[in-house]
Each structure stands twice: as C-alpha cells, then as structure tokens.
Amino acid sequence: MNWFRKKHNPSSGKEDLSLKELLNICKESRDFIFFSQGDVFTVSYYKSMVDTTTVNRDILPVLTRNTSLSLDELKKVLPVESIEVTGNVTDIQNKLLNGNILVQQPNSDRCMLIPATSKEKRQITIPENEYTVLGPKECFVESLETNLNLLRKRLPIPELYVKEIIVGKLTKTKVVVVFIKGIANEDIVNTVINRISNIDIDQVIDTTYITQMIEDNNSSVFPQLIETERPDRVAGVLSEGKIAVLCDGSPSAITGPTTLVEFFSAFEDYFLTWHVASFFRLIRLLAVTFSVMSTPLYVAVLTFHYEMIPEDLLYTLISSRSGIPFPPILEAIILELTIELLREAGSRLPSKVGQTIGIVGGIVIGTAAVDAGLTSNVLLIVVALAALASFTTPVYKMSNTIRLLRFPFLISAQLLGVMGISICFAFILIHLLKLKSLGSPYIGPVYPLRLKDLKDALFRLPFSQQTVRPFTVLSEKPVRFNPRHNAAKQTDKDIDE
C-alpha cells in the first residue's frame, strides 16, 4: 500500500506510472476487466464505465475475427468513431477512466482506445425551482451533452461557441463556457475562461463550486452570477451577449454578467404582456423592501420613536404587548429565528412532509406563543408577512440573502432606531456600488444610469422598444434589430382595405 501511495498520488499532479504499473493498480478494483485472446491481444476496461451491449455486439466480435491485423488496421474496420492509437500513459489513463476499452498487442508499444462509454442519465423533467405556468417545461439534467443539445435546439446557429475546460485534480470535471461569437464581448469571455482555467482544487461537483470561485467578490453576501435550471432562460441571456457556464453532472447553468434587478425578474415575465410583467416586477421589489424593513421598523418605532405611532394604532399595540416579558428586539429575534427554523426543517424533509411541517408548525407555534404571552399578535403578523414577501424573489440565492439581511437591520434598529436603519442601508448601498459582476457594474442600469437599459430593468416595455442589447454586457453587436421594419409592418394596411 505504501508503494501505491508513492507511485500514484493523485493530488501531486505528476504522472510517473508505466503502463504495466497502471494496469496492476487498475486490476485491484473489482469492476476492472482484463482478459487476453491467446497471444494475439489483451482487452482491458472498467465494466462500470462502459456500455456492455456495445462491447459484446460491436467490438469483441470484430476483434476476434481479425486477429492478424495491426492496431492501425483494426482502427479502420471497427464500427466505432473517435478511436485513438497512442502510447502516452497519461492519455491512456484518462481515456480508460472515462469509459474507453484498452486493446494491446504483445509486439507493439502503442495501445488502441475504443470509446464505449455508458451514458446513464435521467429524463428531462419540469423545472422545480423556476416553474412557470406559461412557456416551455424543460429543465437541465446532469448530462452535459443533453444540456448542450437543449441549448443548440433553441440557438441553431454556428456562431454558438462551446469552450471546454477540465477542472478538478480528482474529479476531472468537464466545464464548458458557452457564448455567441460576434455578440458576446471577447474580453468578458476571456475573463471567464481564465478564471475557470486558474481554479486549483481537487473536486468540482456542481456549478455552485464554479460560481464561488469565479465571482468578483467572494466575501459578498450578494450573489453576482445567476444560476438557472431553464435552458430557455440561458438561450435568452446568450442572445443578449452574456456568457453561460455549464458543468458535467450539474442540472444548472451559470449566467453573467448580471445586475441586481435581474434577480427580481422571473423569466415568465417575457411570456406575459408587458403591462402585467411590469406590475409583477414592481410587486416583487416592494415585497423585498417590506421583507427587509418591516421588522426592523417595528423594533425602531416601539423602542425609540413611539410618538410616530397614530393614537388609535398605539392603543392596539399597547394592548397586544401588555404582559409580554421581552423587549421588542428580543421578541422579534425569537420570531425570526422560529420562522427560519421552520423553513430549514421544511426544506430538509420530503416535499409532502415539509409542506405539512411548515403549515402546521407555523400555526401551532404562532398560536401557542401568543396565548402564552411570549410575543404580541401584531409582531407575529408582521413577521409572517415579511417571510411571505421574501418568497416572491424568483432566484433562490437572492432570497437567502434577503433572509440574512434582516438581522443586521434588526440590530441597527435596536441600537439607533431609524438612524441605525439608515446607517445600515448606507453601508449596504456603498457595498453595492463597489460590487461588480464579471467586471460590470452590479446595480446597473440604475448606476451608472443607462436610460435605454431601463426598458427591461425595473419594468418591462414591449419587445418592439427593446432594440438594443444591455449596455452592461458591452456587446460587440449592440443593436438587436432595426425598429423601422417593425414600424413599417404596423403601418401596413389591412387586406380588406
């Protein structure tokens, strides 16, 4: 075993094995198959990585019928594409571990590698996290080839480029950068490729690993790249000049550069009329503001600024808080933590059980807390509405950020009241002004102000008015279409006329 560690250390990044030593190590695995056809050739492969039907039907019969042929001649008669003949041990190891069959002849210093990978994958299903009533019902799966197929089906153009990078010393994960040549900015594309290429880590399991390592500011609580499971959304942002990153084994894609307002825009907005979509976006922004500010304002007003409360409402608050042994800040933190506990418990349990725990637990605990005099019914309503408002955020990572932001605002409200809330908001605003997404301003098009980009930011105007791509992506082809063509079509007379 000490010899194995010395000769084959996967974390060292060095390859000092001979082919014979490599095969001896592989033979120690239960699923490794090694057999010889007399003195003519030997066949080696991992049974768990290859398609046994292809091996027994297309490869082994041809090998047994053509025992007198050389490897180069066998390559021509085998009914398999991408066969490689090489003597490089590193290539042999990589191919063997990726589902290739190794064929050796005794008098040759080269080997033949025959692709026969078993492609196990789940069926394309309905999106779970980004479900929409209207629009397509397909989502990404864990197969990289299937995900690329879903993208090319929506963007059947030769300008759709796919650059592959292998990341992870142990996992050897395939990561691809997808963009449209001639539309995407080359500097941003090169930035993404360089950041991914410079990742030095032993394992990459999911796109979330990539996201955390290529973001501009890893210490920020705000997500700077959007992760989506919808191929139609990825196709849409690619046509805007943005870049997508997909990872083999991950059912989601990363898109960027992005802005803060995009995290509050559901892709279903583009399937609705622009009036309805704009209204829903404003509702989400107001809901997020209420979710973050409502509980801190309650604490600040009751602690420092009770003279701001109308007289009629003051009597209600006094009666609801009579007999409560805790100050407003402690009461609010207890309820906020209870809500977070119910959320976390519901998300970790099976879906049906989790929904039941969330509903029943919220009703039972809330009613019991009010009856026991541990909290006021007014604050219970405020905290419940704030939790409900946070669910309006379409992107899951941003909803987590909103949940976390309430606690620093609560502490600031307890220390300095409304002034503390203002100071906390100022610090967050300064942080957002400094934040970037792949080098682009994070709070654009609000700052720096880009009036043309506002057509699809806080609200969505009709498609006929969105004639240019977002300025933040610095597209090499900023104009989407000529608005004069649409204007000419609208002025055409009716057939009856």
TrEMBL record:
Keywords: Membrane, Transmembrane, Transmembrane helix
Subcellular location(s) per record: Cell membrane; Membrane
One Gene Ontology cellular component annotation held by this UniProt entry: plasma membrane
Annotated GO biological process: spore germination
Membrane topology note: Multi-pass membrane protein
Transmembrane segments: 282-304, 354-372, 378-396, 408-433
Lineage summary: Bacteria, Bacillati, Bacillota, Bacilli, Bacillales
Statement: the UniProt record of this protein carries the keyword Membrane: yes
Organism: Peribacillus deserti
Protein known as: Spore germination protein
Short name of one Pfam family: GerA
Keyword Cell membrane assigned: no
